[in-house]
Amino acid sequence: MNRYAPTGISGFPVTPLNENGTIDEKALIANIEFLLAEGLESIFIACGAGEFHNLSTEEFESMVKLAKSVVHEKVPLYTGVGGNITEAVKKAQVSEKHGADGYLILPPYLIDGEQEGIYEYYKAVITSTDLNSILYQRANAVLKADTLERLLNFPQVVGVKDGIGNMELNVELTQRFGSRVGWLNGMPLAEVTMPAYAPLGFNCYSSAISNYIPHISRKFYQALQDGDQQTVNEIYDTVILPINRIRNKRKGYAVALIKAGMEIVGLPVTNTVRPPVTPVEQDHYEELKKVLKKALDKYPPNWKVTI
Questions:
Q1: CA-wise closest residue to 209 among 53, 30, 14
Q2: Torsion 62-280-206-31 (CA) sign
Q3: Rounded to whole angstroms, how far apart are CA atoms 71 and 10?
Q4: What is the per-residue pLDDT for 224?
Q5: How far apart are CA 54 and CA 51, in angstroms?
Q6: Cα angle for residues 209, 214, 215 (degrees, 5° grid)
Q7: Which end of the chain is flanked by fewer CB atoms within 10 Å, N or C?
Q8: Backbone phi, then psi, for 219, in 5-degree steps?
C-alpha cells in the first residue's frame, strides 16, 4: 500500500443526471476520461462535487466500480465517505472491495461533537479498512492539533484536507506535523486561496473548474509554482475571481455551477442537480457563459469548444 497523499491538482467528477434523475453513466465516464486526459493527478469520486449527500449506497457502489474501471491504476482513486457512521463504514468497505486507493472522510451527520467524539468518528472509519484515509476539516468536523496527533498514529492516515479556511489553525497544524502527513486545499474554488496555502506546505488542491477549464487551472498552478505573479494576477482577474463571484450568489452553486460550466463548454453534462441544491439560474448561467467565452478566447484549450 502506497502511504502517500495525492499531490498536484485533484479531479472531482460530478454526478451527471438523466432527465429522470438517475445517474448518467456515459456522461460520468466522459467526465472522468476528460480529467485523466487533462493530466489531473488523482480522481475523487462521489465526494462533495459528486453530490455525495444525495447518493444511495447502491448508486455509490456503482460509481466506485465505474470509476475504477475507467481510472484503471492510471492515478490514485479516492472515494468520499462520511455522514451516518454506519453508512460511512459501509461505504469505506465498498471502496476497499472495488479497489479504490483510499477515501476522503467527510463530516458526520448534523451533530457538533466534542474533540473526543470527532476522534472516535474518524477512528471508526479509518480502522474499518486498510485503505488510505484523508481527513476533511469541514463544517462540524474540525480537528485540533492534539486530536490530529492521536489520529496520525494510524498508518492509514495520509492526508489532511482543509475546507474551512482557518489560517491560524493551518499554520499551527502544518508547523507541528510538517511532512508527517500530506496537506490538501479543499476550499470551494480552491484556486482562489492556493497562493495563501502553498507557502504552508499545501501541495495539492481540489479543482472544481478543472471539470470544464482544466488547462486554465493548470496554467494558474504552474505560474504560482514558478513565481510568475503576472500570470497569476491575469488569471485571477479574467477567470477565477469572476467565476467565484457567481458561485457566491447562491447556496449550492459550489456544485451546480460546475455542471453549468461543463454544459456551456460542450461536455455531456446538463445543469441538473438533486435537491436541496438548485440548478444555476438563467441570468447567472449567461453570466458564466460570458466569463468562459472571454477566458477561452484568452487561454484557448487543446480541444474544440464553441460558446
A1: 14
A2: positive
A3: 13
A4: 98
A5: 6
A6: 135
A7: N
A8: -65, -40
In percent, how much of the chain has pLDDT > 90? 97
Question: What secondary structure, in 3-state letters, does 208-245 show?
Answer: CHHHCCHHHHHHHHHHHHHCCHHHHHHHHHHHHHHHHH
DSSP notation for 120-167 = HHHHHHHTTSSSEEEEEEBTTB---HHHHHHHTTSTTEEEEEE-S--H
> Which amino acid, one-letter code, is at 66?
L
**pLDDT per residue as tens digits for the range 127-140:** 999 999 999 999 99
Q: What is the pLDDT of residues 6-56, one digit of tens each?
A: 999 999 999 999 989 999 999 999 999 999 999 999 999 999 999 999 999
Cβ-proximal residues to 137 (8 Å cutoff; 6+ apart), any chain: 143, 160, 161, 162, 163, 164, 166, 169, 186
Sequence-distant (≥ 6) Cβ neighbours of residue 222 within 8 angstroms: 228
Report the Cα 41 to chain-centroid distance in Å. 12
pLDDT in tens, 54-92: 999 999 999 999 999 999 999 999 999 999 999 999 999
Beta-ladder partners of 223: none
